[in-house]
Amino acid sequence: MATTTVKDTNFNMRMNKQKKISLEELYGSLGMTLAEAVNIFFEKSLMEGGIPFDVRVPRYNRETEAAIQEAKDIMNGKKHVKSYATASELFAELDEE
User: Fold this and answer.
1) Alpha-carbon distance 39 to 45, whole Å?
2) Residues 66 and 43 in one domain
3) pLDDT by residue (tens digit) across 2-60?
4) Which of 11, 34, 42, 79 yields a CA-CA distance of 20 to 30 A from 94?
5) pTM above threshold 0.90
6) Both 90 and 66 in a single domain?
7) Cβ 27 vs Cβ 34: under 8 Å
8) Are 23 and 32 in contact (CB under 8 A)?
9) Distance CA 90, CA 66 (A)
10) Does residue 11 lie within any of the structural domains?
11) Which residues have C-beta within 8 Å of that of residue 11, sequence separation ≥ 6?
12) Which domain holds residue 74?
């Protein structure tokens, strides 16, 4: 992803000191500086034509998201659940409980 273009301008930003320290530690553990990480983000943004990940507010809370995923897993056959031929069979079993 490295480019051969000349870097001829500066970009400055302000952030919380602790966040900067944490980010420097994180990216340092990956063998890069904070500036290199930001440049990678910018390059990826250009490649993707925008922010290279979803930026959105979750529509549902975690419990609802888990229930939706469970329903999808059931529909796709990834999770097996007991089924009933009729509603009467279901209600009969519920009455036994």
Assistant:
1) 10
2) no
3) 556 888 999 999 999 999 999 999 999 999 999 999 999 999 999 999 999 988 887 89
4) 79
5) no
6) yes
7) yes
8) no
9) 24
10) no
11) 38
12) 62-96
Q: State the SS3 of 53-74.
A: CCCCCCCCCHHHHHHHHHHHHH
The tokens for 42 are: 């910018």
- Could you please report the per-residue DSSP string of the chain? ----S-----------HHHHHHHHHHHHHTT--HHHHHHHHHHHHHHHTS-SS-----SS-HHHHHHHHHHHHHHTTSS-----SSHHHHHHHHHH-
From first CA to last CA, the distance across the chain in angstroms is 61
Tokens representing 70 are 């469970």
Could you tell me if residue 8 is inside a domain? no
Per the domain annotation, does 41 fall within a domain? yes
Tokens 């970009």 belong to 11
